[in-house]
Design brief:
The chain is α/β, with parallel strands linked by helices and 271 residues long. It has a single domain, classed as Glycoside hydrolase/deacetylase (TIM Barrel, Alpha-Beta Barrel). The chain contains eleven helices and nine strands. The strands form two sheets. Strands 2, 3, 4, 7, 8 and 9 form a six-stranded parallel beta sheet that branches. The chain has a three-stranded parallel beta sheet with strand order 1-6-5. β2, α4 and β3 form a beta-alpha-beta unit. α7 packs across α8. The radius of gyration is 19 Å and the shape is globular.
Amino acid sequence: MVACHLAECAPIAGLSHLACLLLDRLAPLPDDVVARARLEAHREYTFERKITCTELVRGNTHLRDVALTFDDGPHPGFTPRLLALLAKEKVTATFFVVGKEVMRDPGLIQEEAAAGHEVANHTYHHIRLNTLRPDLAIAEMKEGVDAIDQVLGSPTRIIRPPGGEYTPALLKAVRKAHFVTVLWTDDAADYLRPSPALIEHRILESVSNGSVILLHDGIEQTLEALPTIIETLRRRGFHFVTVSQMASQPGIHITEIPQVKKWTGLPPGWR
């Protein structure tokens, strides 16, 4: 299929603007991008296979490293803008993707992988895993892995349970399945769509060595807040790594409880 060019599609084929957009969305990526995505995904999985920890909450607190993570994508019309911003800022991140969204827009995670980002598993249906029997939860995880594998040619060991919710029995099953559970230390609750300034404040007030920062793909306010977050963290001397890079370091933390703050009001002095 040839990509649809909006300037000439409707006049020639008599298609509506929306139909042309849908054709463009379905058009495959150039072969070199797909090949690069598969190569990067293979390299990433080869690296992941060497990780010995079973959970990650925080990286080494003696290193000025932070991991930016984005949940719940990919999203057409938004993920490409996020990728463009990260490319401009020269930042590598980890995308925890939802399998059903991957199958709806496979080219988006190919673009993520081709750009050098880590593509990880956020289940197939975005189900709260603590509500399922462990065997059904593992099946849900594996379905998410299969979607990534189908598109990129390589699976992933990295899993984040939706909402960070799990049970001891589930963690035991996840370890047996050789997945690595990744939680977080810093959460701006951006899914509630607060102002960009408030997202910046919530991240920057608490970030520290080894922070795993939870943000979401598809949130306009997050996209607006990111340049300031990235610039400020760099000015403070932090380096951006993927969660696999962080998990491969000595001195990581695996037993902390995620700092999931219930943001119900504004900080003092905010309006």
